[in-house]
Amino acid sequence: MPQKVALITGGASGMGLAVAKALSSHPSIDWKVHIVDLNTETGKQATSTLRNATFHQANVADYTSLTSRFEATYNSSSRLDFVFANAGILERDNFYAKHDLDGPPPPQPNQSSVDINYKAVINTSYLALHYFRKTKARYDGGEFDPVLPRAGLCIQANSVPYTAGAKPQ
Q: What average pLDDT is seen over the chain?
């Protein structure tokens, strides 16, 4: 049975964990699943339920942190075959909050959803392509699946930044 390596951001719960479970139980491919998540407790719990899985704690909004997880994943088997960019959060502030019209301008909005739901997907894509090229030089190919465009189709009324980067495909 051939071995392949997957990296899943936001893989400790929800859709990411569902993909990790599907890969881990694949009948004809021996997947080595690397779950990258901010939450250490749920990440370790998730990997304990999977066959051949490793947890990496990382903040996907931090390029250095994300890069180190890609590097560790690639170095574990000298390959990377599949990346699922699943990490995402809902808006932290109320985008439509009213502020005193006679007072100072409103404070800068919390843009962590932009950092995670948009910038981190770009960085994940960028790193995935790099490691797919390294894998292709040794083996063949690699697949990337960014979940954000599909998740963004479900409009979040109070979260303009969450859906700003998403468009129907």
A: 86
